[in-house]
Design goal:
Helices cover 38% and strands 22% of the residues. The chain is an alpha+beta fold. Strands 3, 4, 5, 8 and 11 form a five-stranded mixed beta sheet that branches. A four-stranded antiparallel beta sheet has the order 7-6-9-10. A two-stranded antiparallel ribbon has the order 1-2. Helix 5 crosses helix 6. It is elongated and about 120 Å long. The N terminus is likely disordered.
Length: 412
C-alpha cells in the first residue's frame, strides 16, 4: 500500500520548521584535564616501568615508613616470628650438638630444660624479649651458648629499634598535622588596590601554631617552546604579597597574588580562563610548634574552581574583647564589580576599571532607591490597612433621648 499523504505540506511540517529555525551557538565544556595535585594534597602521579627496583631496598627504613599500615603490621609480625624461629633452630642445634637432648640428668647441659624444638622456641622468645628466665637458662659450662646469647640480644635490639622506630614515624608523620590546615574550596579573582588579584584563603584549625609558615604558588600547564618542544608539566613560580616572608597563621588569611606583567595569568580574561587548562598549586610549609617537625600541606585549583569577580567574606569579628572566627563562612564569597578583561587590557586602558566601578556604584544606588521605595510603599500600605481596620472597628455614637429632647424633636 502507498503511504497516506499528510494534509499539511512537507515544508510546513514540524521537522522542517525546526530545521529552519535559527539555533543558538552551543558552547561545549572542555574535556576535564587530570589534575596534578588533588584537593586533599595527594600527588596524582603514577610511576611505571621502574627497572631499578633495588634502589628501594637501599633505603629500607623509608620504604617501610611509606608502606600502608596493613603491610607494615604484617612485616612487623613476620620479622619477630622469623627471628624467634631462626634462633630457636640455633638453640636446638646447639643442644643437639652438645647432647642435651639425651635427657640425661647427670650430664652437664648448655641450656637447662631445652629438650625439644618447642622448648628451644620458648627459650628464644625469652632471650630476645627479656621476659625472664624461669626453668630454662644457660650454664657457664658452654661458652658457645654464651656467645650465641649475646648475638641474639644484639640482633633483637636492632630489630626492635627498626620496627618500633618505623611504627613511631608512621604515627608521627608530618602530613598528619597537615590535616588541620585547610584551604578554601574556591579561588577568586577580584580588584584590590586597582589591580586584578588572584586570592585564596588558608586557615589552621588547631591552637598550636605553625612556625615560619610560608605559602608558595605555582602554575602548572602544558606549554610549547619556540623550538617546538612540548613540556607537559611546566611549573611556573607565582609571587605573592608575602613572598620571601613567613606568615603569622594565627587566624585565617587571604593569600593574594597581584596579576602583573610577570604573572602567567596576565593575558587571561574571564572567558579565556574558563577555557584554559592551567592548574594553580598552593603549598603551605612550616614547623609544628609542639613537635618541631616540618609539615607541608598542598592543594590545587583548576579553571572551574576559580571564581572571577568574587571576594571572600570577612569571618573574623570581635566579640566581648575576643576575636572570633566563624569557620562556617570560611569558603563563602560575595560578588563584586570586576572587569572581565585581562590584566594586560586593564593596564593599557585604565578607564575600563573606572567605568566598571562607576556602573557598579550606579547600580548600587538604584538598588538602594528601589529598596527605599519598596519600604515606603510597604509602610504606606500598612498604614492604609490599619486605618481601614480602625474605621471598620469604630463604634457608632449612641444618643439617649430624654422626654424633653423627645418633645423638642416632635415639635420640630
Amino acid at each position: 500500500m502507498l503511504p497516506r499523504k499528510s494534509i499539511i505540506p512537507d515544508e510546513f511540517s514540524v521537522p522542517a520548521l525546526v530545521s529552519r529555525m535559527p539555533r543558538k551557538p552551543v558552547f561545549r565544556d572542555r574535556i576535564n584535564k587530570a589534575r596534578f595535585i588533588a584537593k586533599g594534597g595527594a600527588c596524582n602521579l603514577a610511576h611505571k616501568n621502574i627497572r631499578e627496583q633495588a634502589r628501594f631496598l637501599q633505603d629500607v627504613f623509608t620504604t617501610l615508613v611509606d608502606l600502608k599500615w596493613r603491610f607494615t603490621l604484617v612485616i612487623f609480625t613476620m620479622t619477630f616470628l622469623c627471628s624467634w624461629l631462626l634462633f630457636a633452630m640455633g638453640w636446638w642445634l646447639l643442644a643437639f650438638a652438645h647432647g642435651d637432648l639425651d635427657l640425661n640428668p647427670k650430664a652437664e647441659q648448655c641450656v637447662i630444660n631445652v629438650n625439644s624444638f618447642t622448648s628451644a622456641f620458648l627459650f628464644s622468645i625469652e632471650v630476645q624479649v627479656t621476659i625472664g628466665f624461669g626453668g630454662r637458662m644457660i650454664t657457664e659450662q658452654c661458652p658457645t651458648a654464651i656467645a650465641f646469647l649475646i648475638l641474639q640480644n644484639i640482633i633483637g635490639l636492632i630489630i626492635n629499634a627498626v620496627m618500633l622506630g618505623c611504627i613511631f614515624m608512621k604515627t608521627a608523620q608530618s602530613h598528619r598535622r597537615a590535616e588541620t590546615l585547610i584551604f578554601s574550596r574556591q579561588a577568586v579573582i577580584a580588584v584590590r588596590n586597582n589591580h586584578l588579584c588572584f586570592m585564596i584563603r588558608v586557615g589552621d584549625l588547631r591552637k598550636s601554631m605553625i612556625i615560619n609558615a610560608v605559602v608558595r604558588l605555582q602554575v602548572v600547564r602544558k606549554t610549547t617552546t619556540p623550538e617546538g618542544e612540548v613540556i607537559p608539566i611546566h611549573q611556573i613560580d607565582v609571587q605573592t604579597e608575602s613572598a620571601g616572608n613567613s606568615i603569622f597563621l594565627l587566624a585565617p588569611l587571604n593569600i593574594c597574588h597581584v596579576i602583573d606583567k610577570d604573572s602567567p595569568l596576565y593575558d587571561l580574561s574571564a572567558m579565556e580562563l574558563q577555557c584554559s587548562d592551567l592548574e594553580v598549586i598552593v603549598i603551605l610549609e612550616g614547623v609544628v610548634e609542639t613537635t618541631g617537625i616540618t609539615t607541608q600541606a598542598r592543594t590545587s585549583y583548576v579553571a572551574e574552581e576559580i571564581q572571577w569577580g568574587h571576594r571572600f567574606v570577612p569571618i573574623v569579628t570581635e566579640e566581648d574583647g575576643v576575636y572570633s572566627v566563624d569557620y562556617s563562612k570560611f569558603g563563602n564569597t560575595v560578588k563584586v564589580a570586576t572587569p572581565p578583561c585581562s590584566a594586560r587590557e586593564l593596564d593599557e586602558k585604565p578607564s575600563i576599571l573606572i567605568q566598571t566601578l562607576h556602573k557598579s556604584e550606579l547600580s548600587h544606588q538604584n538598588s538602594l532607591r528601589k529598596r527605599n521605595s519598596m519600604r515606603r510603599n510597604n509602610s504606606m500600605r500598612k498604614n492604609n490597612s490599619m486605618r481601614r481596620n480602625n474605621s471598620a472597628l469604630s463604634v457608632p455614637k449612641v444618643q439617649f433621648l430624654t422626654p424633653e429632647n423627645l418633645q423638642n424633636s416632635i415639635v420640630t
